[in-house]
């Protein structure tokens, strides 16, 4: 019996997007995958847009690495031909601040039959996308939108081809968690089935409420580790030192107040999981297991790229205002990182 392989488009050809692509392509019956890449700069000479990317992956643990077979994946750059069929499955792996500009050219190809999976850092992107789609297509034509978190150690080696190194710092397999509430008698979206069928991804679904908790715990780690490592130019493990403790405590204290009030607003009776002590323990755990890593925000600052600070600490500040909680330290941290972005750009 012939099994129809689904079409999956992946928006974003960075380390996460190409890693997801490689994992899906490595299955016994891979979907038809297309990488949607950034369109050429219209203000300068038109560069040659690659028709495909060859992705190479070295993976394993710190003591045992192997090279996987390479995969060549077709690419597509907006604007898309108006005659092309709608997108049925879309995985979004762009940086948070790049999402809306990258999605806008794709809006004519989205419908209620489209499933979109967001695999990104930060919070607030899905709400922005939902508002944008509603303003263009109406509230009755929204795609099915899912969110997930990627817990894999991946870095991209600068190369003309896509060279990835996948090393799990805890010497155990990484995983992907996707928030999804199964409904009896209903079929899971194709994009979800595809990820669950890729062993290297270690993908699993968790109920929506539990996923929200995972998102918040990941956010607090990102809100401490990312900006402080970027501001002080240090690796993650340096934040375990006593000289950073006061700043860590103030950031975490503000986040704790926001999270606990969010828990009350959401009807969550277990808000004690968001005490300052509990959140700090989680931050220190992540800083320990990723001690030798360079945070993505430090890497962005060093490469003079825009950071995701507005979707991390910025989200905390915004959500705090909505709940009547002032978060001056998180606001200060956000402004310091944005100032650092500007200084780095001016120096290049």
What does it look like?
Helices cover 38% and strands 20% of the residues. It has 348 residues and is an alpha/beta fold. It has two domains: 7-206, Rossmann fold (3-Layer(aba) Sandwich); 211-346, N-(1-d-carboxylethyl)-l-norvaline Dehydrogenase, domain 2. Strands 8-9-3-4-2-1-5-6-7-10-11 form an eleven-stranded mixed sheet, sandwiched between helices. It starts with 6 loop residues before the first strand and ends with a helix.
Just name the CATH architecture of the largest domain.
3-Layer(aba) Sandwich
Question: Which percent band covers the strand fraction?
Answer: 15-25%
Spatial strand sequence of the major β-sheet: 8-9-3-4-2-1-5-6-7-10-11
For the biggest sheet, the summary is: 11 strands, mixed
Q: Which series of helices and strands comes N to C?
A: EHEEEEHEHEEEEHEHHHHHH
CATH topology of the largest domain: Rossmann fold
The CATH superfamily name of the largest domain is: NAD(P)-binding Rossmann-like Domain
Structural class estimated from helices and strands? alpha/beta
Mean pLDDT equals 88
Uncertain residue segments: none
Basic shape = globular
Number of helices: 10
| Alpha carbon gap, first and last residue | 58 Å
Domain Ketopantoate reductase N-terminal: 8-158
Function: Catalyzes the NADPH-dependent reduction of ketopantoate into pantoic acid.
EC number: 1.1.1.169
Domain Ketopantoate reductase C-terminal: 211-341
